[in-house]
C-alpha cells in the first residue's frame, strides 16, 4: 500500500504537477482536470488545498519563483561583484524569462497571479539592489541610490528580454549589449566590463516536475 502523503506533501505534489502543465500549455491553459491527471489524483481533491484554478496558478508560480530566487541569490553571492551584476542582468536564462513573459500575459485576467508577480518583481529588484550595493562597497561601481538604479535597470532588462525571447527582434548578444551598456553607464562601470565578467548561464532555472 502506498504511504499516505501529508498535507504539505500533497500540496507540493499538486504544485509540481501544475508546473508541468504550465510548461506544456502555459498559464492560460491550466485546468484542474489536467493538473489532477498529471498528479494522479482526482481533480476535486485539489479544491481541498486551493480555492480554485486562479489561486492554484498563483501558488505554483510563487512556489517555483521562491525556490528559483533563493538559488539565484546564493549563486550571485558566490561570484565577484561585477560578475554577479553581469549574471543577473544577462538575457540568457531562457526558461526563467519565458515563464515570466507567459505570466505577465496572463496576469491581467488572473488577479492572484498578478499579485504574485508584483511581489516577486519587487524581490528581483531587491536582489539587484543588493548586488549593486555590493559592487559599490567593493569599489567596482558607483550608485547614490541602489534601489532606484535597480528599478531602472530591471525595467530595461525585462523589456529587452521580451524583445529577445518572445519576439526575436534582437539576438542574445544584442540583448546583453543593450542592458550591459545601460548598467555600465548608470553604475560608472568600465565599458565592456560586464560582458568580460559574464559567467556561464546558471541562474533562472525554472522548477518543474
Tally of DSSP helical segments: 9
Total separate domains: 2
- Rg over CA atoms: 19 Å
Strand content: under 5%
Specify the CATH architecture of the largest domain. Orthogonal Bundle
Low-confidence stretches: none
Distance, first to last CA:
24 Å
What would you note in describing this structure?
The mean pLDDT is 91. With 209 residues, the protein is mainly alpha-helical. Helix 3 runs antiparallel to helix 4. The chain is elongated, with a radius of gyration of 19 Å. It is built from 9 helices and no strands. Helix content is 68%, strand content 0%. The chain has 2 domains: 1-50, Arc Repressor Mutant, subunit A, CATH 1.10.10; 67-197, Tetracycline Repressor, domain 2. Residues 31-50 bind DNA. Keywords: DNA-binding, Repressor, Transcription, Transcription regulation. It comes from Microcella alkaliphila. It holds the Pfam family TetR_N.
Describe this structure in a few short sentences.
The protein has 209 residues and is mainly α. The protein contains 9 helices and no strands. The protein is elongated and about 60 Å long.
Q: Notable features of this structure?
A:
mainly alpha; single chain; Tetracycline Repressor, domain 2; 2 domains; Arc Repressor Mutant, subunit A; 209 residues
How do the strands and helices of this protein lay out in sequence?
Layout: H1 7-25, H2 32-39, H3 53-77, H4 81-89, H5 94-106, H6 111-137, H7 146-166, H8 172-187, H9 193-197
Domain HTH tetR-type: 8-68
Keywords: DNA-binding, Repressor, Transcription, Transcription regulation
DNA-binding region: 31-50
